[in-house]
Amino acid sequence: MAKIDTQILDKATAWLSSSFDSDTQAKVQQLIDSDPKELTESFYKDLAFGTGGMRGVMGPGTNRINKYTLGKNTQGLSNYLKKTYPNEQLKVAIAYDCRHNSKSLAQVVANVFSANGIEVYLFSDLRPTPELSFAVKYLDCHCGIVLTASHNPPEYNGYKVYWTDGGQIVPPQDGEIIEEINALDFAQVQFDANADLIHLIDTDVDEAFIKASVANADFKAPNKDDVTIVFTSLHGTSITMIPEVLKRAGYNNVHIVEEQAKPDGDFPTVVSPNPEEPEALEMALQLAEKTNADIVIGTDPDSDRLGIAVRDLEGNMILLNGNQTMVVMTDFLLQQWKNNNKINGKQFIGSTIVSTPMMTTLGNAYDVECKIGLTGFKWIAKMIKDFPEMEFIGGGEESFGFMTGDFVRDKDAVTAALLACEIATTAKANGSSFYASLIDMYVAHGFYKEKLISLVKKGIDGAAEIKQTMIDLRENSLTTLDGSKVVRIEDYQTSMTTDIEAGTSTPISIPKSNVLIYYTADGTKIAARPSGTEPKIKFYFSVNLPLANKEDFANVEKQLDAKIARIVQEMKLD
C-alpha cells in the first residue's frame, strides 16, 4: 500500500474527533486503512471558491462537498455578515437544485445560519438558480446561497454565494469571506438550528419571478401559435419555471421531452447534463423532427445555461454555440431599444474576455458601450452595480449564459428561453428565421467563428499539468498563428498588455486572473485559462472574415473552420 503523506494523515485524523458524526468518522477511517489515493484526493487541499462558487465531489474530507465543509463556509459567512451589518436583523435566501444531497445540504446551511440568529428563507423544493438571484433582492436579503454544481457530473455538488444586489460575490469581498472561513475550526460551526428563524418560501416568490421574466423578455411577437417549440430540462430545475413562463407569454405549442422532465441527480439519459454538449440535446432533436419544431431549448440542471438548436438554411436542426446565441439575442434587444428610441448613450451591454469580439462590434454599431469583464457572470452583475447611472440592456458569455435586463444578476436560462422564442417567432413572421438572422448579422458586421477545446485533467496530477501548461505558454510565447504575427498579448495574471511590435506594456484595469490571450495581425484571438469550476484547461479560438452576402456563407464558413483546425494542429491540441 502506498505511503500516506504525514500532513494529509494529520488532516484526516482530525476528522476522527467528536466534532464529526460517527458515519463521517467511519468513512475517513476506511480511507486511512484501505484507500490512500482517495484519502489524498480528499484531504490534500481545502476546497476553494472558483469562477462559479465552490464545486467539488461529494464525500468526507476538506477537498470534498459535505455538511462540514459547507457548514464551515456558512459559519464563516455568518460571522462576516454580522461584522458587515452589525445592527441589522440579517436575512438570507437559500435554494437548491436536483442533485443528490442538495436538499439535505440546503437544510444544513439553513440550520447554521439560524443557529447564528440569522433569518432564513428556504425554498420548499428545488428551484432554478436565477430565481434565487431574484429572491435575494425581492425579499430584501443580505445574501443568498444556492446548492448546485451546475452541469458537473452526478458525483459533484456546490455552493454559490450571492450578495444584496443578487449578484455573486466578487473581490475583495470574496477574499474577506474566505479569511473568515479559514480562521475557523470545524468545532466552531454551530449546527443546532433555531427553527423559528427558518421560513419556507414557494409560490409567492415563484409568481413574482414569472411575472418579471415575462415582463423582461416578452416583446409581443406576432403569431405565436405558428412556432413549434421543443423543451428539455435535462432532469433539472427549469421544468419548474420555463413551461409556465412560455405559457404566460402566449406560447401554447410547446413539446416537453418527457423522458428528461423529471428532476434526477443521476441524469440517466445523458452522459453530461450540459447543453454545450450536442449529445445532451439528442432526445430533444429527435422530438423536434417528429413535431417539425422551429426551435429546441435545453437547460442545465440549475437552469442558468441555455442551449438552443434551430433550423439552418436547408431546414436541418443545428445546435448553436453560446457565442452565436449571445450575439443574436443582444442584437435583437439592441434593435428593440433602438426602435423605441431608448438609446441615448447611457446604456451598455456586457460580455467576457473569452467570448466573441463580435459583442464589441455590435455595441459600436448601435452606439452602445460593450463592457468586458472576466469569465463568470458575477463580473457582469458587478458592472451593473458599479455603473448605476447606466442602463443594462443585456449580455452574455460564450459558455451558454445570457441575462436580459437587471432584475436577475446571474445568467438566466428561464428568461433567455422566452427571449429566444420571441426572436424565432418575430423572424418567422417576417419570412426569416433565427438562423437567417444570424447570417444577416455576419453580412452586416463580419463573420466571427469560435471554437472551444477543453482538456480534462483530473486530480492532483491533472492540476499540476494544467499549472505547467500555463507556465509553458507564458515562458514560450507564441509568435505566429497560422502564419499571422502575434501583435498583442494580454496576461491577466500579471495585469499587463504587451504590444509586440511597439515593445510596450500597459496595465490591465480589471482584476487578476490566470488567463492568457493572444491576438494576431489578421484578427485571430486565442485565449487559454484553467476552468474555475471543473478539472479542465480551456482554449478559446476566434477567427473572422468579411461575408459579402448570404450566398457566400457556406464557403466562408469552411475557410474559417479550416483556419481554426490549422491553429489547433499547430498548437498540438488535436
Automatic annotation (TrEMBL):
GO terms for molecular function: magnesium ion binding; phosphopentomutase activity. The keyword tRNA processing does not apply. SUPFAM superfamilies: Phosphoglucomutase, C-terminal domain (SSF55957), Phosphoglucomutase, first 3 domains (SSF53738). It holds the Pfam family PGM_PMM_I. PROSITE patterns: PGM_PMM. Residues 48-186, 208-309, 321-440 form the Alpha-D-phosphohexomutase alpha/beta/alpha domain. CDD domains: PGM2. Signal peptide: none annotated. The keyword Repeat does not apply. Its cofactor is Mg(2+). GO terms for biological process: carbohydrate metabolic process; purine ribonucleoside salvage. Keywords: Isomerase, Magnesium, Metal-binding, Phosphoprotein. It comes from the Bacteria. Belongs to the phosphohexose mutase family. This is Phosphomannomutase.
